[in-house]
């Protein structure tokens, strides 16, 4: 069961890299973009969820 958090971290890193790749070109073209904001919002949401899960598991 020790390998699963590493896997989650890897997936998270890849996802965040993709988000950065998608978000920053949009950011450089226009300062506000609904699509970019939506993607970033989703990424932050997912990140919070995984952090919460880790925190809960630690305190069990």
Uncertain runs with pLDDT below 50, 5 residues or more? none
Overall shape: it is: elongated
Q: What proportion of the residues is helical, as a percent range?
A: over 70%
What's the Cα radius of gyration?
14 Å
Estimate the strand proportion: under 5%
What is the ordering of alpha helices and beta strands? HH
User: Counting H and I runs of at least 4 residues, what is the number of helices?
Assistant: 2
The overall strand count is 0
> What kind of oligomer do you see?
single chain
Structural class computed from helices and strand pairing: mainly alpha
Main sheet makeup = none
Distance between the termini: 15 Å
Query: How would you state the average pLDDT, rounded?
Result: 70
Question: What does it look like?
Answer:
With 60 residues, the protein is mainly alpha-helical. Helix content is 88%, strand content 0%. Helix 1 runs antiparallel to helix 2.
């Amino acid at each position: 069961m020790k390998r699963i958090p590493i896997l989650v971290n890897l997936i998270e890193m890849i996802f965040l890299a993709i988000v950065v790749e998608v978000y920053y070109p949009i950011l450089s073209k226009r300062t506000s973009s609904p699509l970019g904001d939506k993607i970033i919002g989703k990424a932050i949401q997912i990140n919070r969820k995984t952090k919460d899960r880790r925190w809960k598991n630690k305190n069990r």
